[in-house]
Amino acid sequence: MSLINRIKNRLIAKVITRYPSLAQRFITAYEPRESGEVIPWTPAKKPLNECKLAVVTTSGVHHNGQDPFDMQDSEGDPSFRAINAATINDDYRITHDYYDHSDAEKDLNIVLPLDRLRELQQEGFIGKLADTHYSFMGHIDGRHIATLIGRTAKQVVENLKQDNVDVVLLTPA
Amino acid sequence: MGLIQREIEKAGIATIGISIVREFTEKVQPPRSVFLRWPFGHPLGEPGNVKQQRSVVLESLKALYTISTPGEIIDLPFRWRRHDYSTYVEPDNFVPRDQS
Cα(A16)–Cα(A29) distance, rounded to whole angstroms? Predict the structure, then answer.
């Protein structure tokens, strides 16, 4: 994708953030999956104060040292970045041209609320906050929906299971 | 985001998602969602507004335990920039239904 297209996308993102009704035609055109599939269902088995919790966000957050998400592919970047909860607040960037992240750059908690979750852990609401969380870029379309479901989301699922995570909070952009 | 949520839930981990575009969420049908009619890029609210961010997190975690129908979306009552969080009563019962 050309630089001009990227600038155009960022401008559209700024306007849509201010006037959400303008997003309607993008929303109507979005066909993310086949309909008629069963909705997966796994109820929480334990009280929250005995659960390990992780966050998965699609806000395009990543550490400075990690590769930025690929903004050249119009069907998005289905890869993910592992986020270290201990260091992310002092070491992050957001690569995502499809929303205005200037507020999230001031306070990451509005897309990845790790400070709030840590407080809830200290107060005894949550058993344990995971050390590692996961970030995607969102805005995944076309051929990359299959990559996401078949490969990258599966990898994150494996990592969460390895880490004995009981519950996951998902935050969009 | 809902597609990832579905994969995690399918693998046996309970999930709750925050939605800021209700129509997307209705199409994707993740197992559990809370919805806020808020601008893109602000699912937990405004920078520095700790009380607001905390309220959204607590309501999301509560919905993890109260939603009993797959695909349900709970509309949270918080209005963008016009909600008084000082009157918010924090939930305290984050326990599976059969254990409460």
Answer: 16
Residue burial A75-88, b: 16+ Cβ < 10 Å; e: rest:
ebbbbbbebebeeb
Give the β-pairing of A93-94 and A61-62. Answer: antiparallel
Domain contains A130: yes
- Look at chain A and report how many structural domains it folds into: 1
A52 within a domain of the structure (yes/no): yes
Helix, coil or strand: residue B44: coil
A17 contacts B96? CB cut-off 8 A: no
- And the tokens for A17? 């953030």
Residues 65 to 124 of A: which have CB under 8 A from any B CB? 99-101, 103-104, 106-107, 109-111, 113, 116-117, 119-120
Helix (H) or strand (E) holding A93: strand A93-94
Backbone angles phi, psi at B14, to 5 degrees: -70, 140
Identify the three-state secondary structure at position A81: strand
Q: Which residues of B touch A157 (CB under 8 A)?
A: 7-8, 11, 13
- Structural domain for A117, as ranges: 3-31+44-171
Question: If you ran DSSP here, which 8-state letter would residue B22 be given?
Answer: H
ipTM of the predicted assembly exceeds 0.90:
yes
**Domain spans in chain B, listed from the N-terminal domain onward:** 2-77
Note the pLDDT tens digit of each residue in B35-94: 999 999 999 999 999 999 999 999 999 999 999 999 999 999 999 999 999 999 999 989
A109 contact residues in B (CB cutoff 8 A): 44, 47, 53
